[in-house]
Amino acid sequence: MSEERNFPIGNAILEIKNISLSFGGVKAITNTSFTVLEHEIRAIIGPNGAGKSSLLNCINGIYKPQEGSISFKGKMLEKINPNFIAQQGISRTFQNLALFKRMSVLDNILVGRQLHMSANFLQVALQLPKAMEEEQSNLAKCEEIVEFLEIHHIRDTPVGKLPYGLQKKVELGRALATDAEVLLLDEPMAGMNVEEKREMCRFILKVNDELGTTMVLIEHDMGVVMDISDNVVVLDYGKIIGDGPPDQVRSNQAVIDAYLGVAHD
Question: Domain range for residue 59?
């Protein structure tokens, strides 16, 4: 990536220390440690079954590792569940779309503002001033995201009627609506054609550069990984076999043997 950036890479924002996760007798992750730096784009790669999604699930609280710790901005995350992690400032998109297909683009993005809503049911039902002010504020924020992602022309369209690439962009918008400092993207370009991948890359870089959001992404397309990542972690059977800048990882013999020497989509 270019060295000229609006938000230079800073200190550690997310620290994964000696994480181990097992399901029954099967080890998904073994003694895994790495650090994510503020404002960087960090890729996680590896063969199918290497433990990549399980690792993201540990970070955002879906799984609780049996060993190790996760720290965010220097504070250990002891209460591990998705809502708590999201409230701290870490949001997640998923490999399989989790959108409300009958709802509009704007309404789907508004779902991401739930974390920032404090008005109770009665205040909302009676349209009391606090609820109305909160509603207008959240709506304005989501309108900004719609403009930022250049999807204003489909803001009122039901998500289920959109092509796959645009649906993935809506999911990114919903994650942005949480005001997360760290976004975890699980295969954001899976199933996309070349043009859709190019467009998604553009917006990942735009989010990182203009908003300063730290990104951690799982991706199989090595061209994408090498083009947009600042640093890359390589997993194989739940263990890290490579960690560093893209060029360094690409020339790592262990990584070549385990992953890069195999044909990928």
Answer: 1-89+227-265
